[in-house]
Design goal:
551 residues; alpha/beta; 9-stranded mixed beta sheet; 7-stranded parallel beta sheet; 22% strand; binds glutamine
Amino acid sequence: MEPDSVKYIFVTGGVTSSLGKGIVASSLGMLLQARGHSVTIQKLDPYLNVDPGTLNPYEHGECYVTEDGAETDLDLGHYERFLNRPTSQANSVTTGRIYQSVIEKERRGDYLGKTVQVVPHITNEIKRRIKLLGSSGEYDIIITEIGGTVGDIESLPFIESVRQMTWDLGEKNSMVIHLTLVPYLASSGELKTKPTQHSVRLLMESGIRADVLVARTEYRLPKDVKEKLALFCNVKKGNVIECKDAGSIYEVPLMLHEQKFDEVVLKTLDLPFDKEPDLNNWNNFVDKFQNPSHQLEIALVGKYVSLQDSYKSITEALVHAGASTDTGIKIRWVYSGEVTAQTVDSLLGGVDGILIAPGFGDRGVLGKIISANYARRKKIPTFGICLGMQVMVIEFARNVLGLKDADTTEIHGQTTHPVINLMEGQKNITSKGGTMRLGNWKCQIQKGSKAYEIYGNELIQERHRHRYEFNNDYLDDFEKSNFCAVGKNPDTGLVEIMEHKELPFYMGVQFHPEYKSTVVKPHPFFVKFVEAALLQKQNKKIHATGKKAGQ
Ligand code: GLN
């Protein structure tokens, strides 16, 4: 697509945060893609961190990692899961990154003689970043989600950039979708439009007219409420789209499509809308997800479980794997800080599978080690991701290899058995931002292993986000005891996948497969984990009935 004919859609939010702009943008992207357009979605975040990599997950939920190693907002995960298309560093821009590049240019002398100001220097840099995706020639529609809420001081430069871009591009080449809240007042039994009117007015004060309103609501919006919103917010009558609370995020695109959301957008952008989108796959997925034949309970052992968004990609990857195996998955959230030798049985007893989550720092690590031990002894299908794999290794070293103080040097720098160690290249790094092993790295898989069965391929690539690695000095000892490195980086020899040869499914991966799972392509590692848990559950049942019959 010629850069000049690319269409730009901006999604802003009003009234409150957390309305789900990311899901609305992803749903729209998916619907437009299903009509044959090539779409990508970008997020502009108004905070000063250069990227969210240094944020605690409690602050901002999971940090999502792209193929090219960008540490990004979790909304990028939704974009990839809905569109089944990788994003990149260019899809994630923060105020911090904008200022960083403007200040670097200033120091270099690019603006020599000029006063560097928010307008035009910051706004020009924002516009340049927005247009960057359009100039790649890969996409015909770019959706840009503006983080934060209209009226926030910190989003002003983004809003001003959107104003300038819509002015530059003209009506049929750009549009603004405003997502707001229509609250229900139980005392008067009414849906209130006033907050939306105020937020649209705020947008207008910044020179932006919303073309479409998407109204988040707990209840259906009656026709008169929609008309009132249209009249007082100055949008066309059919351009008020209701977005009622849904049972799952995957129902949202279907709900929006029913109200002709994609058609309204195409009309606004002067694009053809006669051909209906092909939503067969999506409908099948939602149907399987809502009406599964089997049920499983999987424990997710982690330290950030009180904010479930911290594990967004993992829980979504389980949803994808569940739908593809006709299985409903109930997650038992287990706070690793509470797992002790005394509590482990009551916290993990009865689950069909255990997922040991990634993480940083020492809090809750002992609980994860105890969970790995419980899982191994009870032969429960277990999947460890990143720190999850590392604790499986530590547990095995301590309890099978007899290396009593085996540890990761992240927690115990002086251990005599550093089975998980800082890689050489990391030893002199002091700066925290963007310095881990990040993004796609190759992994060579041993033929005949379970991992090979999972991937059906000898050479794969998976995304990483960590500093510490399996210490290969100990590999022989592990392999002699049947915990084997069946996946390694072909260039560096770093261990990527550990697999227990005698247990039904006891596997740890140093990378993050969850980032790659999408609705269309559930990740095979999660699928096999769920299948192993299903098999174990069936065997247990057969065993229990056999026992009863034998009594
Ligand atoms: N803290 C560990 C490391 O840096 C694991 C990281 C993770 O689980 N993402 O190696």
